[in-house]
Amino acid sequence: MSLSEAPVVAQVYRNGFLESVHRGLVAVTRPEGSVSFHRGDPETPILPRSSAKPIQALAMVRCGLNLPPDQLALACASHSGESYHLETVRRILAEAGVDESALQNTPDYPLIDAYRFAWIAAGKPISALAQNCSGKHAAMLATCQHNGWPLATYLTRGHPLQQAVAETIRSFGATITITSTDGCGAPIQAISLADLARIFGRLAAATEGPEREVADAMRSFPANVGGTGRDVTDLMQSVPGLIAKDGAEGVYAVGLPDGRGIALKIADGNPRARPVLMSAVLQRLWIGDSALRTRLSKQSVLGHGQPVGAVVPVGI
Question: Does pTM surpass 0.90?
């Protein structure tokens, strides 16, 4: 199934009028990896975008990266650009003996409006440090430094680091369909939606080794994975043992401590339906309390600054 053939998974209502629809895919996997629920074809290949960051971080830990948990959580992050995020990136680089100028992620302003506006108001230019992937890139540089690998070419597909990432993905039994370039400049591998769910389930259920190290870092420092008020951070703070990572173009992945995994993709890439759809899946699985599910599902449609409608899940 192509994304253009994906079923409708969310509808947007304004004053009771159906204004828009979002198509998408959902896959829920059991601890042993089989698919227990799906909308659309769960074997459809997708680009996980930033939902791949915990997998990339796992590859780095397998290659000898040794970071304290708060820094490792930031290696898994699409951070908001808050001051503690940027200071943690600086610590990763400083402790590895790498200069900030070595970061090759695409320069940008902070991800979230409040921090982006404050950055601009202060007269600061776009920078690799402020861009939301800087934690991952700092960790990549630290991994290269540890192994004596070239820093200048760390984003090339043939670099030992990027080869290790691809091998880590395959180690879970996933098939890489293509390798593309992510928004930050790093290689990103297309895998099936079901494979993304399976990998997150295995990470969350790990009892030892690098997998457990990555999952525990995310659980211990969920604000480092997202930021203040972010649904991905809320989700990890509210459900014991759960790990979660949002991604661009409407991707979301969750791993549960019992080994179940959830992955979804909004076909048109619009992120507004993403937390609403995840909330509906959690409701179906009865994961988290009702207050959490209500908070995640509150995606209002505004008219003159006031709620006049909502994004509503379909078929879950």
Answer: yes
